[in-house]
Write a structure and sequence with these properties.
The chain is mainly α. The chain has 2 domains: 103 residues, no CATH class; 116 residues. Helix content is 74%, strand content 0%. The chain has 9 helices and no strands. It is rod-shaped and about 95 Å long. The relative contact order is 0.19. InterPro entries: DUF6261. It holds the Pfam family DUF6261.
Length: 248
């Protein structure tokens, strides 16, 4: 038997726009003959259509929530506020005023476990700040020490900034939940559906060949060659394949 095999194509290495276009063109060739390609290829084609459409819908939305930059700015603001508080504590410890030195030492002892909180992930930082400020607010002696070295208002400002960040963070997450998963997160699923459809067509054309399947196989293989060449050029220009991720 003259076995037909599709040309090699590393689908996972395609950029998301190229994968969408490859899938779309494949679907345009296959959908008109769906009833003539067999039950399994038809089922995998339906899955490919659904997964590519889902990815396409998300591709048309903004790639990054507009609130994300505001969160970054708010996080920087509270980090700056906490840095100013720490500077004042350190300065007063080194000063000549004994009352301020004592107050500053007391505050340094309290803040020591939280000294590097600004290096944590943003939402983790929110929780740690909330814990720290809650304990501070419940301790009248610490509040008196803060007043002694003049940082009471700074701590109030930090608490306000932390609350603002937390509120906006929750709003951003709620927006993203309503908008559904990102296109990038759906890329793997769409690529897998394409590969499953190709496998189904390859099996069908080898074990139950028809003129329709042979023609479709040839059309799909030409597409694969086109995108393989495109991917080859990109691989020379870009050392690593594109794989975008979201943080925060």
């Amino acid at each position: 038997m003259d076995e037909k095999l599709f040309s090699t194509l590393y689908v996972a290495r395609l950029k998301i726009n190229d994968l969408f276009s490859l899938n779309k063109s494949t679907i345009e060739y296959a959908n008109p003959v769906k009833e003539s390609i067999g039950a399994i290829p038809a089922a995998t084609l339906t899955q490919l259509i659904n997964d590519n459409e889902a990815m396409g819908v998300q591709m048309n939305k903004p790639a990054k929530n507009m609130l994300t930059q505001q969160l970054v700015d708010l996080d920087q603001d509270r980090d700056d506020r906490f840095a100013e508080i720490k500077r004042n504590i350190t300065t007063n410890i080194k000063g000549r005023d004994e009352a301020k030195k004592t107050a500053a030492r007391n505050l340094k002892g309290f803040f020591e476990p939280y000294w590097d909180v600004d290096k944590k992930a943003m939402n983790t930082e929110t929780g740690v700040f909330a814990e720290m400020l809650g304990k501070y607010n419940a301790n009248e002696a610490l509040k008196a020490d803060a007043a002694t070295i003049g940082i009471a208002d700074m701590l109030t400002g930090l608490e306000t900034a932390n609350t603002e960040f937390d509120t906006l963070y929750k709003t951003r997450n709620s927006d993203e939940a309503q908008n559904g998963p990102s296109a990038t997160s759906l890329k793997t699923t769409a690529a897998k559906s394409y590969e499953q459809f190709c496998t189904a067509i390859e099996q069908a054309v080898n074990f139950a060949p028809t003129d329709v399947l042979t023609t479709l196989f040839g059309q799909m293989d030409e597409l694969r060659k086109t995108y393989a060449a495109l991917n080859g050029r990109k691989s020379q220009e870009e050392e690593a394949p594109e794989e975008a991720t979201e943080t925060e």
